[in-house]
Amino acid sequence: MMKAKFILPALPLILASASAIADDSPKLQVTPSGRILMDGALYASPQKEQFPDGMAIPEVRLGAKFKYGKWSANIDMGYAYAKLGLRNIWLEYGFNNHSSIRFGNFIHQFGLQSTSLSLKSTFEQPLASALFTPGLQLGVMYVNYTPAFYGAVSAHVESSARTNVMNAPLFNQQGYGLLTRLVWRTASEGAPAFHAGISGGFATPQRRLEGEEDVHDGFTLSANFPTKVVQETAVSATVDKAMNSFKFSPELLFAYDRFAFEGQYFFQQINRRENLAAYHAQSGYASLRGILFGDRYSYVSSTAQVANPKNNTLECVVNYNYATLSDSKANIFGGCANGFNVTFNYYFNPYITARLNYSYTHVWNREGHDPMTLNGFQARLMLLF
Asked: Which domain of life is it from (predicted)?
């Protein structure tokens, strides 16, 4: 009886302690995600018939992010230009706060532009980068970083593996690739952020059809003019009888107070069979960024890049880029391009950004095509969550 007198009053405390212990277990967290792009453009190009003025919603993407303890996942679906499809689908395990491994369909790390659309300060990804930065690819990537170093290494299969069934003769094999991005940096609160990095890649030939047979011996490099209202190819080269491909890309970044600089160079060599000369392509870009009003720039250690400015910030970005896909020794003329653009970004909050852009891009020396020029003004409202 005496024991009951002591146990009964203590029972609520015992139950509360047990509940607290149970609460320490991981809980599933689900967060909706998505983005919407709304664009308008006025062009003053000499080839006006190929660049008509207009408006477009080039992309709508909806999905969800999941987190449970050290595990996280993402799945989203995108609608773009009357096509509906699955986009980022991945599962990630975090070993600790600074290293993780990711499996699935996502953009693998290769240079400054390979992280997130929301962190691209230019209106569109520079043409020089769009040629060599990989798109969505099925594979695995390991990331590890410290205050002074960032490293990512990944393996993937070719892009067409996401949309084509392995069914001879139309798709009788898969090409694969290896990518890495290594960055050395100095960044601390209130001090200038500087980093220097190098990315490298190796790939085997990709899917290429001759008639109704997959010969699987080629690579295609291609990029559109930097606008979404009109989809027009700027430069493009297809290299057949290929054995393999090597590419590398050094990068530089500097950010301090209201000023930032980003630059990158790309080089790719495609080795060929039957004593054919190797094909070479290259490109590069440089961007100067400045905050006209608002807070200063900051650096994101987990992705090795400049963070988006804070709320109610107006930013001006000036970019120059060039690309060369014509190689006379290989007798392949995919075209040459250079251009510059000026973009004003206003960051209302973390979810809404408005962009106003002037873009000039000139292309020439593309076999079977006359020189072309994009000259126009563009505006975009971007919703991101």
From this structure: Bacteria
Rounded to the nearest 10°, the torsion over CA 209, 228, 337, 322 is: -110
Q: What is the pLDDT of residues 109-142, one digit of tens each?
A: 999 988 766 567 888 889 999 999 888 899 999 9
Q: What pLDDT, in 10s, does the model give residues 279-309? A: 999 999 999 999 999 999 999 999 999 999 9
Domain that holds residue 318: 30-384
Closest CA to 203 of 222, 182, 175: 175
| Amino acid (1-letter code) at residue 8 | L
Residues forming a β-bridge with 315: 291, 345
Identify whether 377 is part of a domain: yes
User: Which of 154, 174, 177, 178 minimizes the C-alpha distance to 162?
Assistant: 174
> How is residue 164 annotated by DSSP?
S
CATH number at residue 104: 2.40.160.10
156 located within any domain? yes
Token digits of residue 45: 């190009």
Strands 313-327 and 279-293, bridge-based pairing: antiparallel
List of residues 6+ apart from 158 with CB closer than 8 A: 137, 174, 175, 176, 177, 203, 206, 207
In a domain, 22, yes or no: no
